[in-house]
Amino acid sequence: MRHFISIADLDRAEAIAVLATAEHMAETQSRSIRKLPTLVGATVVNLFFEDSTRTRISFEAAAKRLSADVINFSAKGSSVSKGESLKDTALTLQAMGADAVVVRSGSSGAAHLLAHSGWIDQPIVNAGDGAHEHPTQAMLDAFTLRRHLRPGDRTGGLDGIHVVIVGDVLHSRVARSNVLLLTLLGARVTLVAPPALVPVGVSAWPCEILYDLDEALATGPDAVMMLRVQRERMVGGGFFPTEGEYSRRYGLTTVRAASLPAHSIVLHPGPMIRGFEIAGDVADSPRSVIVEQVASGVFVRMAVLYHLLATDAWEAPREN
Amino acid sequence: MHDEQPPAASDGEESSAAERSRVLGADQIRRALTRIAHEILESGHGADDLVLLGIPHRGVPLAERLAEQIARAEGDDRPLDQLAGSLDITMYRDDLRHNPTRAPSPTRIPRDGIDGRTVVLVDDVLYSGRTIRAALDALGAIGRPAAVRLAVLVDRGHRQLPIRADHVGKNLPTSRSERVHVQLTETDGTDAVDIVRPGPGPAAAGEVRA
Known about the structure:
heterodimer, A: alpha/beta, five-stranded parallel sheet, four-stranded parallel sheet, 11 helices, 9 strands, globular, B: alpha/beta, three-stranded antiparallel sheet, 8 strands, disordered N terminus, disordered C terminus
């Protein structure tokens, strides 16, 4: 792996290799000293053009646990808000000696552009680009799913598992990355959303689309992943009639959660709006793995940084 | 040590001119391990506070074999996984950035931990000493042993760090261009230690990594 831009770039063996490394990272994080010297001397730049707390903190924690230095560059209050282009920002980071750039942007394809424009030679990690992809989120979801639904299996995929993803699929890069990764790993995915929140071209995705949550839950899925309704992206409105109606038809209520098979788990990429897409007591119930997803996120991001940075194949070979 | 033994599958790549000679056979390996097991016990600590940690890949089965012998000699009926474990050092290597990414192996520490106990690190070949340095760093993150000792099946010399082994199966003077090839039943289907001398010609591309 040279960059980590899109799940579509991965094959099954690579995805499983990242999950295996993440398991190893998880194991090291239960030691009395959790910091590993692996990336000492490397500098990771978190380049965030979009507000994000949990993803940025997660990448920062992952880089620091591997002893890398971290520079956080957020667009607010930076030269970007003064009109600097992505190109000039990239050239600046390159000149400062970044060894890897983690980029989050509201524009789909920003990470790809950085990786392939020639402005910067270092590995690029996509931390979410517009409505396109959020590959590390999908990796941490797959990691959490495998730990719960295939306990003890450190080398397999998610074959035979059925996952229902519910909510604002239209604006969700999490949904797209998850559909690609979970099906790559052998799972079956069903998307559930109001018709206005289903993206154009979804029929080409390797999954099934339903508009009725109760119909999807009646099939007894192994996991239900709730998505946040991204109000900040719904300029102009008209995506659903009222919050109350959305919540009634597409919210994971206590009654709906109770109808799930006993082994089913509930995921949410966060931040969640309690009482809207998910009931507070479902989020706090034993089947919720939402807090564990946050911990998994650090392990998976450590694994991704390790795979990108712990090797330097393009550097001149060492003499001995 | 990782560096001396590419997977057995790579044997076919060796040029036909390479010359291979057997240094230890199965019986000699067994006797060497029996002697090391007794040396470890005689070094004064008994089996109670011992923890044997093998360094993947081939140190792990060696640590298990030593644990078995020690348990038998002492009449110790603890489960073997309380006496032997494994210690992966991938994340602690100093040459990570110069080699292809390695898939880490699991680390298994016996349930009682290593604090205050005597840890014996076990590896197949001692060469530059860098693997052992990494292992000492990895141990430091897990706990604080009372003492750390080192047992190796083969010491081939050419140290690059001030590290020595406490227990050695066989001292094997080698030149840097030679390769020491250890095979164990658990990982390779047979017990043997060979020296491979590069033939004339381009030769020994795999050897330069320290």
